[in-house]
């Protein structure tokens, strides 16, 4: 059986933030990162997002096969599945759906869930040359976790210095 690939895709500031505040749109990320992101989403069976991220980007995301993480009750709404990971095991769900390629788009609680549950196979990070000084971390957890990754590739995306890093889990 083909192994499920679960890719976490994130743009981060130099100080490791995915947004300056919850509700911050992705107007600070480069065109090259957006092009890369869209190519990855096109190649994925489904896209996993938190409810806030889905609300911010509902129009473009609703065209895709979306799984929206929520702590509330689960439901399906015009192709979008609202999924509560406390009620259902995500890996069982993904196997039942026969997904082989999953893109995880954040935010913090969603990235952290996949990290903590050892479900992430790949991490694609674009470091944008900007500092926020405050904001939402890529991962945030109550407990100490140390997860090791291996750098597969690094690519300079543009002359401003946006860098795309591809890590795999060890
Ligand atoms: N730079 C990037 O690559 C990137 C990527 C994604 C998002 N963002 C930005 O990040 C911000 C949004 O991120 P955010 O962290 O505030 O919100 P978020 O993760 O998009 O949404 C938070 C909500 O999603 C649900 N959720 C998240 N993790 C969950 C879990 N493990 N279990 C159950 N439900 C879970 C909960 O919904 P309920 O309230 O329904 O329970 C929670 O209130 C926006 O500004 C967005 O633009 C940036």
Write the SSE topology.
Elements: E1 5-12, E2 17-19, H1 31-42, E3 46-50, H2 51-56, H3 58-61, E4 66-69, E5 75-77, E6 80-83, H4 90-96, E7 101-104, H5 108-116, E8 122-127, E9 136-137, E10 149-156, E11 163-169
The structure holds NADP nicotinamide-adenine-dinucleotide phosphate.
Account of the 3D structure:
This protein has 170 residues and is an alpha/beta fold. It has five helices and eleven strands. Strands 5-6-4-3-7-1-8-11-10 form a nine-stranded mixed sheet. Strands 2-9 form a two-stranded antiparallel ribbon. It starts with a strand and ends with a strand. The protein has a single domain, classed as Dihydrofolate Reductase, subunit A. The structure holds NADP nicotinamide-adenine-dinucleotide phosphate.
Order of helices and strands, N to C? EEHEHHEEEHEHEEEE
Contiguous low-pLDDT stretches (5 residues minimum) are none
The top level CATH class name: Alpha Beta
Strand count, sense and barrel status of the largest sheet are: 9 strands, mixed
CATH-defined topology: Dihydrofolate Reductase, subunit A
* Average predicted local confidence, pLDDT: 96
**Which superfamily, in CATH terms, is the homologous superfamily?**
Dihydrofolate Reductase, subunit A
Rg result: 15 Å
Category from helices, strands and their pairing: alpha/beta
What separation lies between the terminal Cα atoms? 21 Å
Number of helices: 5
Note the beta-strand portion: 25-35%
Strand order of the largest sheet: 5-6-4-3-7-1-8-11-10
């Amino acid at each position: 059986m083909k192994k499920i690939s679960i890719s976490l895709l994130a743009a981060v500031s130099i100080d490791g933030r995915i947004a300056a505040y919850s509700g911050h749109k992705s107007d600070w990320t480069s065109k090259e990162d957006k092009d890369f992101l869209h190519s990855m989403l096109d190649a994925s069976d489904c896209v996993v997002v938190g409810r806030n991220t889905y609300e911010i980007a509902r129009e473009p995301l609703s065209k895709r096969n979306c799984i929206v993480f929520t702590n509330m009750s689960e439901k399906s709404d015009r192709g979008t599945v609202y999924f509560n990971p406390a009620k259902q095991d995500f890996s069982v769900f993904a196997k039942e759906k026969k997904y082989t390629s999953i893109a995880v788009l954040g935010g913090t609680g969603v990235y952290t869930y996949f990290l903590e549950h050892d479900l992430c196979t790949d991490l694609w990070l674009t470091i944008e040359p900007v500092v926020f000084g405050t904001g939402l971390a890529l991962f945030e957890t109550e407990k100490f976790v140390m997860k090791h990754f291996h750098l597969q590739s690094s690519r300079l995306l543009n002359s401003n210095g946006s860098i795309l890093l591809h890590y795999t889990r060890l």
